[in-house]
Amino acid sequence: PANYLRNVFHVGWGLFGATLILALAAWPTALIAVALAFAGAGWTMEISRRRSPAINAKLMHAFRHVSHPHEAHQINSATWYATALVLLSLTREPSVMVIGVLVLGFADPAAAIIGRRFGRIKLVNGRTLEGSATFALVGGLAAFAALTLAGGTLLPVYGLGTRLAVAGVAGALGAVAELYSRRVDDNFSIPVTSAAGAWAMLALLG
Questions:
Q1: What is the pTM of this model?
Q2: Which residue from 202, 193, 201 is spatially nearest to 84, judged by alpha carbons?
Q3: I need a labelling partner for 6 at 20 to 30 A (CA). Which of 60, 70, 87, 114 fits?
Q4: Residue 85 dihedral angles phi and psi, to the nearest 5°
Q5: 140 in Cβ contact with 168 (< 8 Å)
Q6: How far apart are CA 131 and CA 114, in angstroms?
Q7: Which burial class, exposed, middle or buried, applies to 204 when counting CB atoms under 10 A from its CB (0-12, 13-18, 19+)?
Q8: Which of 109, 51, 38 has the alpha carbon at shortest distance from 79?
Q9: How far is Cα of residue 172 from the mean position of the Cα atoms in its chain?
Q10: Sign of CA dihedral 98, 101, 107, 110
Q11: Are 124 and 179 in contact (CB under 8 A)?
């Protein structure tokens, strides 16, 4: 079922991640340390709630408005997101990192809303063509906006063609990752895949 509060939460964490990356862009080692701290906190909570049903119940109650029921018995999406942040931070490329978190933050909830309301053409894993197309479009726009708005201040300046190519690939690959993420949580696979596509395109285009 639709959970608009979770969608807002998703966007908020995407913006928070992007802000953190841009704020620490000049200090890549510090960014890695912060990402490790978030991931460490997430995995510590995962271990704690596996060992204590009472802790698990309290955490699930605290996040009841933004969590999925299955997360009571599986690793939480936020923990997977924090783990993805660690991998992104190891690239030491702020542009790539920002793209990864913003594609996830904006495109995933947009695809969920459109897919549930207007999705008619079924694909795989419960996804629809309408939802996946929305993901690619919104993800591409989010990546393009980041490269454009932060270019020359917090991120390098890229030409229009480069920005369009990188953003398009990041959005499209994020949509593919979301489409086929079944065993792997898409809060991990989407930012990693989108960032990898952006990184490859930036390398290809010089």
A1: 0.93
A2: 193
A3: 87
A4: -60, -35
A5: yes
A6: 6
A7: exposed
A8: 38
A9: 14
A10: negative
A11: yes
